[in-house]
Amino acid sequence: MSELMLRIRxxxxxxxxxxxxxxxxxxxxxxxxxxxxxxSPPDLGHHFGVWSAFNRExxxxxxxxxxxxxxxxxxAHLTFHPPIHFHLTKGKGQKxxxxxxxxxxxxxxxxxMPWARIVSKPVSxxxxxxxxxxxxxxxxxxxxxxxxxxxxxxxxxxLDPSHTYAPQLNRFEKQVAWHSRLISVSxxxxxxxxxxxxxxxxxx
Length: 204
Known about the structure:
The chain is mainly beta. The chain has one helix spanning 103-110; strands at 4-12, 15-24, 30-34, 38-40, 46-47, 58-61, 71-73, 77-81, 85-90, 94-100, 112-119, 138-143, 151-159, 172-178, 181-190, 197-203. The protein has one domain (4-203). The protein is 4% helix and 50% strand. The protein is globular, with a radius of gyration of 17 Å. The relative contact order is 0.28.
C-alpha cells in the first residue's frame, strides 16, 4: 500500500489556504502535521507506561487560546506508530510527549477512539496553499468559504472499520481506511482564535 497525503485546506477570499496535513505511511503509521506554528502549555513533557484494558485512564491535553500562557512549537506533528505508540515531535526531533495505547482494542470496546483536536488562527491569516510535492499522491479536504471571520477546527479519530457511521452535522468529513483501521478526518467552523493550538486525547 503506497503512501497518501491528505491536505487540510480552507477557502479564502483570495484563494485557498493550507492549515495542516495527514501523512498515511506504508508501514501503517499516521502523522498529523501543521503548516503554521502552534502553541502548547509550557510544562508539557510526559512519558507513559503500559496501557491496561482493565484500568484505562483518559487524559485530555487541551491547550488554551491565550498566547501569554503558551509557548510556540515549530514543525509540530503528532504520530501514531502501530500498533500502540504515539508521540508529539517538534523542532529537530524532540519528543515532548510519548505514550502507549492499544487503538484496536479501544475501538473494539468503545466503537471509536478520539485522537487530535487542532484549531487554526483566523483563516484570513493562514498561508496560501502550495502545489505540493511532484509525484506524491495527495488528496484535499477543504473547508468552504463563508462570510465573516472564523477559525478552522480539525478533528482526527479512530473508528471501527466494521461499522457504518452517519455523516456528522456541521462538519466536512473524510474517512480513510488504512492498514485495517478506519480514520475519520473532519473540519468545521469555529469562533476566531488568536493563535493556532493543538490538543489530543490519550487513553492508556
